[in-house]
Amino acid sequence: LNNNLLTNSDFFTGAFPAEYGNALSGAFDLKMRTGNNEKHEFIGQIGFNGFELGAEGPFSKNSKASYLANYRYSTLGFFHAIGINLGTGASIPQYQDLSFKVDIPTKKMGKFTLTGIGGISYIELFESKKDSGDWSFGLSSTNTKFASDMGTVILSHLYFFNESTRIKTNFSVQGVYNATEVDSVDNDFEVKNPYYRAYSSEIKYVLSSNIHKKFNSKNNIALGTSFDLYNINYVDSFMIPGATMFLTRLNSVGQLGLFQSFIEWQHKFTNLLTLYSGVHYQLFTLNSSQTVEPRLGLKWNFHEKHSLNLGAGMHSQMQPRMVYFFETELTDGSYTQTNNDLDFSKSNHVVLGYEFLPIKNSRIKFETYYQYLTDIPVLESHPEFSNLNDGDFFTINMNDSLINSGTGKNYGVELTIEKFLSKGFYFLFTSSIFDSKYTGYDKIERNTVFNGNYVFNALTGYEIKINNRSTLAIDLRSVFAGGKRYIPVDLEKSRIEKTTVLEWNRAYEKKYGDYFKIDARITFRLNGKKINQEWAVDIQNMTNHKNIFLESFDVNKGELRRDYQTGFFPMAMWRIYF
């Protein structure tokens, strides 16, 4: 979603409220802003990463109805074609997207809203087009193509029965298509054989309704229900080594559903002490697995500048839908789906936080948390494996015969120091020190792939007023984080078998080097009577630090290779508002 279209949104981590479900660690409730219902406005932008056009305004002078629309198109391919080095070699992401929102308030029937977003994208990580000095992000000795298309339309209705009671109902349709194609490449960069094919499509229908009721100054109740219906079509296959045919691991067409409901109660014991409590319920129609998840929160403003908050809750999440349909070939040549009965993965979370407002426009926040995860899918034939480590690469692990016996735990402390924008200056510092572990089928505790142990972020900016019409802004952002964990490559076995062989007995013991990046942005704004303009220069990774993306085995050269993330990369942008 384009950040130019966002309004205040809710981001929850840890023990989040009962309204949100089917998530283990957090929820991001993104909200698109409403278009200007008083005058028409337009925006145009062009930069290294693409161009953008936007419009908003009222439908008529006699109505409060409004529209908002925005379109973006990638121009990276154009800049690459004219010889500008984008830092990604021949691997240029291509994308375009369209977003819109229509708001129609009525006098007696409430407010109707129609929201839509859609986009198409693909990237080719082709070894056959890679120059010797290029950094890349794909698997060695392969040509890999990823494509992804999506579209969503949401019809919403908000109705106030009176000042204390409202109901909001949503109906949405979402379509998603993903494709992955991998071909092997030889030493001469010629394509040898098709190696892997995966295609998935989903059409999702969602109907939800929430009611909020304020009984008095101390008590509020919210309850709601939703049903997600998925029509799915999954195909996944790979070439058997030494053969000329594909082995099908997944070929499913079907329908499944997820029913959710919740109830929340907010009670103010005093103006300083507030209780948040609730229960979330889920039912997965594929195998009738269900969960009941109590949630509890407490906030105590014991001083005008000091507050404490405590949160605890149970949370659960169904597995990635494709996982349920992986197929196992039997001795008679038939196939069975051994993952159909997988239960929800579950989490128990406790969070304690302290917030201090030392001076005007500033905040210091300290938080500590503990999360224990259960019913994580693991594999008896591969005891070091856990689905908790999914998500660090482009695809998910394809395994059948999974069972819900794995566990995990995350705990740590976080510190935030923030000065909100005032007098042209702001800064934000966040730090997180944590530990993240899991157990597979063998019950041995190991690091997760995400256990970098620490992350530090710093942002700052200053705006200089040149005159009544123009300003100059300078912004800096830096990230320092522990490197990603990895499974080392067994070089000798990889050379013998001519494919990547990992040392799973040493899974995630080691980390890549620390991640470090500094970005800078300089922006000049010029305000006119009817037209405002903005010029900006972004410098990504201004120190050109080489952050490791992946270590893999180069089949053709018989050696290890390291691919790195994007290095020093300047970008320019021009934006006009009228």
The helix tally amounts to 2
- Quaternary class: single chain
Bin the helical content: under 10%
Mean pLDDT: 90
Q: Could you give the count of β-strands?
A: 31
Q: Classify the secondary structure makeup into a structural class.
A: mainly beta
Please identify which CATH superfamily of one domain we are dealing with. TonB-dependent receptor, beta-barrel domain
Report the end-to-end length measured between terminal Cα atoms. 22 Å
Give me the Rg, rounded.
Answer: 26 Å
Q: Main β-sheet, in a few words?
A: 22 strands, antiparallel, barrel
| CATH C-level label of one domain | Mainly Beta
Uncertain residue segments: none
Output the CATH topology of one domain.
Answer: Maltoporin, Chain A
Choose one word for the global shape.
Answer: globular
Structure description:
The protein has helices spanning 76-81, 491-497, and strands at 10-13, 26-29, 41-47, 50-58, 66-73, 94-105, 111-126, 142-162, 165-185, 191-214, 219-239, 246-268, 273-284, 289-303, 306-317, 327-329, 335-337, 345-356, 362-379, 402-422, 425-439, 445-447, 454-465, 470-481, 485-486, 510-511, 515-527, 532-540, 548-554, 559-564, 569-577. The model has no long low-confidence stretch (mean pLDDT 90). The chain is globular, with a radius of gyration of 26 Å. The strands form 5 sheets. It has a 22-stranded antiparallel β-barrel. Strands 1-2 form a two-stranded antiparallel sheet. The protein has a two-stranded antiparallel ribbon with strand order 16-17. The protein is an all-beta fold.
